[in-house]
Each structure stands twice: as C-alpha cells, then as structure tokens.
Amino acid sequence: MCPYMYNFLYTRLLQHFLEDTDELWEKLCQRDFRGSQPEEMEQWREMYLRKHNEREMKYQKLKETMSSSIVKGQSGRKAQLAYMDTPVKAPRDVLRRQMKYGTGCVKMTKGPGVKPYKPSVRAPVYNPMAERPKVVKPVPPMLAKAMQMRKNMRR
Q1: 79 in a structural domain
Q2: 22 with 45: CB under 8 angstroms?
Q3: How many domains does the chain contain in total?
Q4: 126: which of 28, 69, 101, 130 fits an S-S bond (Cβ 3.0–4.6 Å)?
C-alpha cells in the first residue's frame, strides 16, 4: 500500500474514533479541570489537550523560578562559626564536677611555662573509698498507700 493511501485511511479512522470518544474526553475534562467548558467550536479532546499544555507550561515556569531563586539565595550565603577566636568551653555541669572532685585539665597560661590546674580551697578532695551516707528518699503518699494495700491483701 502506498504511503498516501495509508495516511488517508489513518486520518479517516482517527476521525471516526474521535467522534465516539467525545464522552470519555468530557469525563476526563470534568475530572481534571473542574468547571471548565470548551470554547466555541472546540471539542472536549481539544480542550483537554489545551488545558493539559497550559498546566505543563505553568509548572515549568514555576520550576524555573524556584530553581533560580534557590541558586540566587545560595550564592550570597556562607556558613560561619560564631566564636572562632575563643577557646572551647566545657559544659557547665562538667566544669562544676571538675571543681567538686578536683579533676580537670592543664591550663595554658600566657607565660612560657605550663602550670597544672589547682582546685580552689573550697573544693573537697574526692576519696572514692570513703563510705557515702545513704540518702533515703521519701516515698510519695500515693505509692505508700498502694504498698500498704498490697501488703494487706496478702494476709
């Protein structure tokens, strides 16, 4: 079959099927583009394709503006450390425990020598072998009542 004949038959069959599928295109249009009506002398298929292309163009434009704003925003930003020239400090609770137990690191002084860290007179000397007094925590009233009820139930 020659190509002219093939194209002719193809367009005739396509026109025939397009007329039968108009209801399907209408349902697709109602589902995807609510409240839209075809323009004058426009079929539902043409309207669907037009609206679909408009949506794609809108998304492309939005994508371009977002990517350009991200690139523009990142060009001027730079991460910076807040305190680069000051030495690192330990957390407060660590410093308190070091003071309490007399431990700690060697401090550097401005002079040429290195002096070891000496705790203040206020800090007690830590002896791990010394016996610690037992601290009795008070029992909450509701727990005491529940324990008493449990004790009475076993009798």
Answers
A1: no
A2: yes
A3: 1
A4: 101
